[in-house]
Amino acid sequence: MGNFTKSILYSTTVLAAGLVAVFAIYNNVSTSGNGVADIAPAAGESELGINFEDSAQKAADSVEGAIDAAAETASEAAAELNDMAAAAGETISETAEDVVDATVDTAEDAAEATEEAIEPAADATEETAEEAADEVEDAAEATEEAVEETTEDAKH
């Protein structure tokens, strides 16, 4: 048997079962008798000794209590979340301040270290310049003496 044939037989079976169910429901509904008169009341005294009115009131009270408890829990959770958010904000603010302070301190330390490094270099440069001036002066004197000697030798 091919798949197409199996599909047709399955569809027919489902359709037949559906029709049987529809006819069964129709027969049960149409033979009920008086219709609305057969419906029993949902509240009041029962023959079993159960007071439906009290039971309904107790159920309503417990639902109301559960709603109140849920609202209170939600309110407490919201307050806790608010507190946690505020604490996180404060922590972030403090951390940012600490980072700024550390950065400023590091910059100040770097500036001081640069100053301390520049001062000896400036002093050394000044000393070197003075020494170079002295050397140039000595060289100039030596050149002047050599010129004078050469001039005297040339005259003789």
Describe this structure in words.
With 156 residues, this protein is mainly alpha-helical. 85% of the residues lie in helices and 0% in strands.
How is the topology of this model organized?
Layout: H1 3-30, H2 52-155
Features:
elongated, 2 helices, mainly alpha, 156 residues
Name the overall outline: elongated
**Overall residue-averaged pLDDT value:** 80
- Helical region count? 2
* Separation of the first and last Cα atoms: 145 Å
Give the class from helix and strand content and strand pairing. Answer: mainly alpha
Strand content: under 5%
How large is the radius of gyration? 54 Å
Largest sheet: none
Q: Would you list the SSEs in sequence order as H and E?
A: HH
Low-confidence stretches: none
The count of DSSP E runs of length 2 or more, i.e. the number of strands, is: 0
Helix content range of the residues, please? over 70%
Give a quick precis of the structure.
With 156 residues, the protein is mainly α.
